[in-house]
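Good morning N.,

You mentioned wanting to compare the apo and holo forms, so I went ahead and generated the holo version with zinc ion. This is what I fed in:
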Amino acid sequence: MPANASAEFSRRLFLGSTAAACLVAGFGAARAAGSIKPDAKSALIVVDVQNCFIDGGTLPVKGGAAVVPVINKLAASFQNIVVTQDWHTPGHASFASTHAGKKPFETTSMPYGTQVLWPDHCVQGSDDAALHKDLKLPTAGLIIRKGFRKDVDSYSAFVEADGKTMTGLAGYLKERGVDTVFVTGLATDFCVAWTAMDARKLGFTAYVIEDATRAIDLNGSLAAAWKQMTDAGVKRIQASDIA
Ligand code: VGL
Ligand code: ZN
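and this is what came out, ligand included:
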Protein backbone atom coordinates (compact mmCIF):
# COMPACT_ATOMS: atom_id res chain seq x y z
CA MET A 1 0.00 0.00 0.00
CA PRO A 2 1.18 3.57 -0.67
CA ALA A 3 3.08 5.21 2.16
CA ASN A 4 0.48 7.95 2.64
CA ALA A 5 -2.30 5.33 3.07
CA SER A 6 -0.52 3.83 6.03
CA ALA A 7 0.10 7.31 7.44
CA GLU A 8 -3.62 8.03 7.10
CA PHE A 9 -4.40 4.71 8.79
CA SER A 10 -2.21 5.45 11.81
CA ARG A 11 -3.56 9.01 12.02
CA ARG A 12 -7.08 7.59 12.27
CA LEU A 13 -5.96 5.09 14.84
CA PHE A 14 -4.42 7.90 16.87
CA LEU A 15 -7.54 10.09 16.64
CA GLY A 16 -9.72 7.13 17.51
CA SER A 17 -7.78 6.28 20.63
CA THR A 18 -7.57 9.94 21.69
CA ALA A 19 -11.36 10.21 21.41
CA ALA A 20 -11.72 7.05 23.49
CA ALA A 21 -9.32 8.37 26.13
CA CYS A 22 -11.32 11.61 26.35
CA LEU A 23 -14.51 9.65 26.88
CA VAL A 24 -12.99 7.56 29.63
CA ALA A 25 -11.51 10.63 31.31
CA GLY A 26 -14.89 12.29 31.14
CA PHE A 27 -13.89 15.27 28.98
CA GLY A 28 -16.76 16.87 27.15
CA ALA A 29 -20.38 15.90 27.51
CA ALA A 30 -20.18 12.34 26.29
CA ARG A 31 -18.93 9.45 28.39
CA ALA A 32 -18.92 5.83 27.30
CA ALA A 33 -22.12 4.12 28.44
CA GLY A 34 -21.59 1.95 31.49
CA SER A 35 -18.05 3.26 32.03
CA ILE A 36 -18.38 3.82 35.80
CA LYS A 37 -18.42 0.68 37.90
CA PRO A 38 -19.34 1.22 41.57
CA ASP A 39 -17.24 -0.94 43.90
CA ALA A 40 -17.19 -1.83 47.60
CA LYS A 41 -15.99 1.72 48.36
CA SER A 42 -19.00 3.30 46.59
CA ALA A 43 -22.39 4.16 48.06
CA LEU A 44 -25.66 5.15 46.43
CA ILE A 45 -27.42 7.91 48.41
CA VAL A 46 -31.14 8.15 47.72
CA VAL A 47 -32.32 11.55 48.96
CA ASP A 48 -35.90 12.21 50.10
CA VAL A 49 -37.89 10.10 47.63
CA GLN A 50 -40.96 10.67 49.79
CA ASN A 51 -44.62 11.28 49.09
CA CYS A 52 -44.26 14.93 50.15
CA PHE A 53 -42.02 15.63 47.14
CA ILE A 54 -44.17 13.80 44.59
CA ASP A 55 -47.46 14.81 42.91
CA GLY A 56 -50.21 14.70 45.52
CA GLY A 57 -47.71 15.53 48.29
CA THR A 58 -47.31 18.77 50.20
CA LEU A 59 -44.21 20.08 48.34
CA PRO A 60 -44.38 18.33 44.97
CA VAL A 61 -41.32 18.44 42.74
CA LYS A 62 -42.23 18.45 39.04
CA GLY A 63 -41.66 14.97 37.60
CA GLY A 64 -40.55 13.64 41.00
CA ALA A 65 -42.07 10.19 40.51
CA ALA A 66 -39.90 9.64 37.42
CA VAL A 67 -36.80 9.12 39.57
CA VAL A 68 -38.24 5.99 41.19
CA PRO A 69 -37.69 3.43 38.38
CA VAL A 70 -34.28 4.96 37.59
CA ILE A 71 -33.15 4.58 41.21
CA ASN A 72 -34.61 1.06 41.54
CA LYS A 73 -32.54 0.00 38.55
CA LEU A 74 -29.36 1.73 39.76
CA ALA A 75 -29.63 -0.08 43.10
CA ALA A 76 -28.53 -3.37 41.49
CA SER A 77 -25.08 -1.83 40.85
CA PHE A 78 -24.40 -0.87 44.49
CA GLN A 79 -23.14 -2.80 47.50
CA ASN A 80 -23.88 0.16 49.81
CA ILE A 81 -27.17 2.06 49.73
CA VAL A 82 -28.29 4.83 52.09
CA VAL A 83 -31.76 6.38 52.02
CA THR A 84 -32.70 9.74 53.55
CA GLN A 85 -36.00 11.11 54.79
CA ASP A 86 -36.87 14.75 55.37
CA TRP A 87 -38.47 14.44 58.81
CA HIS A 88 -39.89 17.63 60.31
CA THR A 89 -41.71 18.35 63.54
CA PRO A 90 -45.15 19.96 63.32
CA GLY A 91 -44.54 23.73 63.40
CA HIS A 92 -41.00 23.29 62.08
CA ALA A 93 -38.89 26.44 61.62
CA SER A 94 -38.68 25.80 57.85
CA PHE A 95 -42.46 26.04 57.48
CA ALA A 96 -43.91 29.41 56.35
CA SER A 97 -46.92 28.74 58.59
CA THR A 98 -44.64 28.94 61.64
CA HIS A 99 -43.72 32.58 60.86
CA ALA A 100 -46.44 35.22 61.19
CA GLY A 101 -47.06 37.05 57.91
CA LYS A 102 -44.85 34.75 55.82
CA LYS A 103 -45.89 32.84 52.74
CA PRO A 104 -44.32 29.70 51.25
CA PHE A 105 -41.25 30.34 49.09
CA GLU A 106 -40.41 33.60 50.88
CA THR A 107 -37.33 33.68 53.08
CA THR A 108 -36.56 34.54 56.67
CA SER A 109 -33.42 35.05 58.67
CA MET A 110 -32.42 32.28 61.06
CA PRO A 111 -29.46 32.27 63.49
CA TYR A 112 -27.65 30.04 60.96
CA GLY A 113 -28.46 32.18 57.90
CA THR A 114 -31.21 32.74 55.34
CA GLN A 115 -33.91 30.10 55.36
CA VAL A 116 -36.34 29.50 52.49
CA LEU A 117 -39.82 28.98 53.93
CA TRP A 118 -41.74 26.02 52.60
CA PRO A 119 -45.29 24.76 52.78
CA ASP A 120 -45.74 22.39 55.75
CA HIS A 121 -44.20 19.14 54.48
CA CYS A 122 -42.78 15.75 55.53
CA VAL A 123 -44.12 15.81 59.08
CA GLN A 124 -42.68 12.98 61.18
CA GLY A 125 -44.73 9.79 61.00
CA SER A 126 -47.24 11.09 58.41
CA ASP A 127 -48.06 9.29 55.13
CA ASP A 128 -46.71 12.41 53.41
CA ALA A 129 -43.28 11.68 54.95
CA ALA A 130 -43.26 8.00 53.96
CA LEU A 131 -40.95 6.78 51.21
CA HIS A 132 -42.66 6.44 47.82
CA LYS A 133 -44.39 3.07 47.70
CA ASP A 134 -42.74 2.00 44.43
CA LEU A 135 -39.21 2.63 45.69
CA LYS A 136 -37.70 -0.86 45.93
CA LEU A 137 -34.43 -0.84 47.84
CA PRO A 138 -34.38 -4.08 49.84
CA THR A 139 -30.60 -3.92 50.28
CA ALA A 140 -30.47 -0.36 51.70
CA GLY A 141 -28.52 -0.54 54.97
CA LEU A 142 -29.35 2.81 56.54
CA ILE A 143 -32.13 5.38 56.63
CA ILE A 144 -30.96 8.80 57.76
CA ARG A 145 -33.63 11.19 58.98
CA LYS A 146 -32.89 14.88 58.87
CA GLY A 147 -34.52 18.18 59.77
CA PHE A 148 -36.07 16.58 62.86
CA ARG A 149 -35.06 19.35 65.26
CA LYS A 150 -37.77 22.02 65.43
CA ASP A 151 -35.49 25.02 65.05
CA VAL A 152 -32.95 23.72 62.54
CA ASP A 153 -33.47 22.63 58.94
CA SER A 154 -31.23 20.14 57.17
CA TYR A 155 -31.05 19.93 53.39
CA SER A 156 -27.80 18.00 53.62
CA ALA A 157 -27.75 14.35 54.63
CA PHE A 158 -24.36 15.00 56.30
CA VAL A 159 -24.59 18.27 58.27
CA GLU A 160 -27.60 20.19 59.59
CA ALA A 161 -28.23 23.78 58.46
CA ASP A 162 -26.45 25.12 61.57
CA GLY A 163 -23.31 24.02 59.74
CA LYS A 164 -21.98 22.02 62.67
CA THR A 165 -24.34 19.25 63.80
CA MET A 166 -23.33 16.05 62.00
CA THR A 167 -26.05 13.51 61.12
CA GLY A 168 -23.63 10.59 61.52
CA LEU A 169 -23.69 9.67 57.82
CA ALA A 170 -20.04 10.58 57.20
CA GLY A 171 -18.97 8.43 60.16
CA TYR A 172 -21.09 5.53 58.96
CA LEU A 173 -19.72 5.68 55.44
CA LYS A 174 -16.08 6.08 56.56
CA GLU A 175 -16.40 3.21 59.02
CA ARG A 176 -17.62 1.06 56.14
CA GLY A 177 -14.68 2.08 53.93
CA VAL A 178 -16.77 4.15 51.51
CA ASP A 179 -14.89 6.94 49.74
CA THR A 180 -17.21 7.70 46.81
CA VAL A 181 -20.89 8.65 46.84
CA PHE A 182 -23.45 8.74 44.04
CA VAL A 183 -26.28 11.10 44.96
CA THR A 184 -29.81 10.71 43.57
CA GLY A 185 -33.35 11.77 44.54
CA LEU A 186 -35.18 15.00 45.36
CA ALA A 187 -34.65 17.81 44.98
CA THR A 188 -31.62 18.40 42.74
CA ASP A 189 -31.22 22.03 43.78
CA PHE A 190 -31.77 21.62 47.53
CA CYS A 191 -31.21 18.35 49.39
CA VAL A 192 -29.33 16.60 46.56
CA ALA A 193 -27.01 19.58 45.98
CA TRP A 194 -26.29 20.22 49.67
CA THR A 195 -25.63 16.53 50.22
CA ALA A 196 -23.24 16.30 47.27
CA MET A 197 -21.37 19.48 48.28
CA ASP A 198 -21.01 18.39 51.89
CA ALA A 199 -19.75 15.03 50.65
CA ARG A 200 -16.94 16.90 48.85
CA LYS A 201 -16.18 19.01 51.95
CA LEU A 202 -15.92 15.82 53.98
CA GLY A 203 -13.45 14.28 51.56
CA PHE A 204 -15.63 11.99 49.46
CA THR A 205 -15.57 11.76 45.69
CA ALA A 206 -19.09 12.80 44.72
CA TYR A 207 -21.24 12.20 41.67
CA VAL A 208 -24.79 13.40 41.06
CA ILE A 209 -26.74 11.14 38.71
CA GLU A 210 -28.75 13.87 36.99
CA ASP A 211 -31.57 11.80 35.48
CA ALA A 212 -32.14 10.18 38.89
CA THR A 213 -33.00 13.64 40.30
CA ARG A 214 -35.65 16.33 39.75
CA ALA A 215 -35.53 19.98 40.80
CA ILE A 216 -37.73 22.54 42.53
CA ASP A 217 -36.03 25.37 40.55
CA LEU A 218 -36.99 28.38 42.65
CA ASN A 219 -35.72 31.70 41.18
CA GLY A 220 -32.93 30.05 39.20
CA SER A 221 -31.88 27.75 42.01
CA LEU A 222 -31.22 24.80 39.70
CA ALA A 223 -28.63 26.57 37.53
CA ALA A 224 -27.04 28.08 40.66
CA ALA A 225 -26.85 24.66 42.31
CA TRP A 226 -25.15 23.06 39.29
CA LYS A 227 -22.61 25.89 39.19
CA GLN A 228 -21.84 25.48 42.90
CA MET A 229 -21.68 21.71 42.62
CA THR A 230 -19.38 21.82 39.59
CA ASP A 231 -17.13 24.36 41.33
CA ALA A 232 -16.96 22.03 44.35
CA GLY A 233 -15.79 19.16 42.14
CA VAL A 234 -19.07 17.24 42.07
CA LYS A 235 -19.29 15.16 38.89
CA ARG A 236 -22.49 15.34 36.84
CA ILE A 237 -23.37 12.02 35.22
CA GLN A 238 -26.36 10.09 33.85
CA ALA A 239 -27.72 6.72 34.95
CA SER A 240 -26.50 5.15 31.71
CA ASP A 241 -22.90 5.96 32.75
CA ILE A 242 -23.15 3.40 35.54
CA ALA A 243 -22.22 -0.20 34.74
C1 VGL B 1 -36.16 19.68 50.41
C2 VGL B 1 -37.08 21.76 50.55
C3 VGL B 1 -37.44 21.54 51.86
C4 VGL B 1 -35.46 18.65 49.57
C5 VGL B 1 -36.49 19.44 51.73
O1 VGL B 1 -35.58 17.45 49.87
O2 VGL B 1 -34.80 19.05 48.58
N1 VGL B 1 -36.45 20.83 49.84
N2 VGL B 1 -37.13 20.37 52.44
ZN1 ZN C 1 -37.85 19.96 54.37
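The CA atoms of residues 8 and 14 lie 10 Å apart.

Happy to go through it together on a call whenever suits you.

Best,
F.
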